[in-house]
Amino acid sequence: MFRLLKVSVFTIVLLSLALVVSVSGIFITYSRLTAEEPVARVTFEEVGNQEYNAYLTLPGNDIPGKYLIYGDQWRIDAEFVKIKPWVNILGVDSRYKLVRLEGRYQDIEDQNTRPHMAYDLGATKGIDIGKLVADWNFLIDAEYGSSTFTDIAVANTYTVYKSQFGLLVREDVTQSNDARKGAVDGVFDWLFGSK
């Protein structure tokens, strides 16, 4: 009987340990495959009809670059090297190089007839994509261009992120304290009165 109890306790401990290791592996895999890193911050100042000064700040550089943008949207492009998922889980991140910033118009006719400017963000700097692919091809899943664009709102600050699969942008909306209140704050205000 005592031996059966020892085997049962040992089995429970072993299965519990296996469960903890499995769940930890799932969380590590999820966090590695969904990791994001901010690579640029953009703000705008309106200077005319569909004309903006774009202020682009890159990590490690506190002084933003100033670019004249035409249109009602903006876009940033990058060369991107996606790492194979198993390599990414082991801790190697996908590689990128920001290459272009430009304005764009929602209306195609405006895009084809109105002023347009594109800016080189240092295509000669950073990683050499071709060399990286040639030297580490067994780790590389794909090499491609990644781009993200969104409407221009002067009140917003935009943060560009590099994920393991490409670029994405999020707006940091400037709001009043009342506009920031969530559903829980609304319930508390209703229950206890607004302060």
TrEMBL record:
Task: Please give the superkingdom of this protein's source.
Answer: Bacteria
- State the protein's name: Uncharacterized protein
Task: List the top taxonomic levels of the source.
Answer: Bacteria, Pseudomonadati, Pseudomonadota, Alphaproteobacteria, Rhodospirillales
